[in-house]
Amino acid sequence: MQDDFQQSRFNQRSKRRKTNLILNGLIGIVLVLIIVVSGVIFLGNDDKATTQKEQEQSLEASNEVNEGEESSNEETAGSDSETNEDSSSTDSSSSNEESSEEASSNDNEEAIVTEGGADSNVVKTIVNPNWEPVGTSQTGEHTSVYSGVDWDEMVSAIEYATGLSKDNMTIKFLGNDGHNKSKGTVFSKDRTQIYRVSIEWVEGKGWKPTLVEELALIE
Asked: What is the H or E stretch that residue 148 is in?
């Protein structure tokens, strides 16, 4: 009987040990699962945070690139606009110069040039039907006055007929040549060009060249 009792107690202890081992094993497995799940959750959240941060940085970089491109486009557009305006201004200036040159060329083509003239010192005589009055600021009945506005407008007519600018013109003589007519002798500053110019007054339109005589050079 005692042997059976001891055997029974041994069996019970053995069963308890096995049960404890199983329970401890299960507890260990549960702990491992808890650790694994916690790690997955923690790492997952960290990855999401990192991904979100990367996305925000990428978006900021993209915005900066877009702003840079817009600024560059605006500068380019401004530069193109200025270039177009400069080009337009240059074309307009060139066109005006060409028109002026063409008009001058047409005047020269229409000019009637004759060798010699009324005096022995006349090299050639020039008459041009395209000559026009130079305009005037004077009003009312005109009387030739060799000073002030009338003088200045006479000089403008001589400048127009000879091609000499006022800065390159010395007036040797400018006086009366009949009713509303005047005559002047002028030469270039270097005295390589000498002209005698006849002009007449056109009512309301100013002085108009009628004759240009190129004179022999002064020795």
From this structure: helix 148-162
* Residue that has been written with the tokens 């497995």 in this structure: 29
Residue 197 has pLDDT above 60, yes or no: yes
Spatial contact of 212 and 161, defined as CB atoms under 8 Å apart? yes
Average pLDDT for 182-211: 96
- How confident is the model over 70-94, as a mean pLDDT? 51
Instruction: Go through the chain and tell me how many residues it has.
Output: 219
pLDDT at 118: 79
Strand, helix or coil for residue 110:
helix
Q: What is the DSSP letter of 167?
A: G
Single out the residue of 193, 149, 153 nearest to residue 172, CA to CA.
193
CA distances from 145 to 39, 118, 142, 154, 211 (A): 112, 27, 9, 10, 21
User: Is the Cβ–Cβ distance between 166 and 153 less than 8 Å?
Assistant: no
142-146 contacts at long range (C-beta below 8 A, 24 or more positions apart)? 142/180, 142/201, 142/203, 144/176, 144/180, 144/182, 144/201, 146/174, 146/175, 146/176, 146/182
Model-wide pTM > 0.70 = no
Comparing 67 with 168, the larger pLDDT belongs to 168
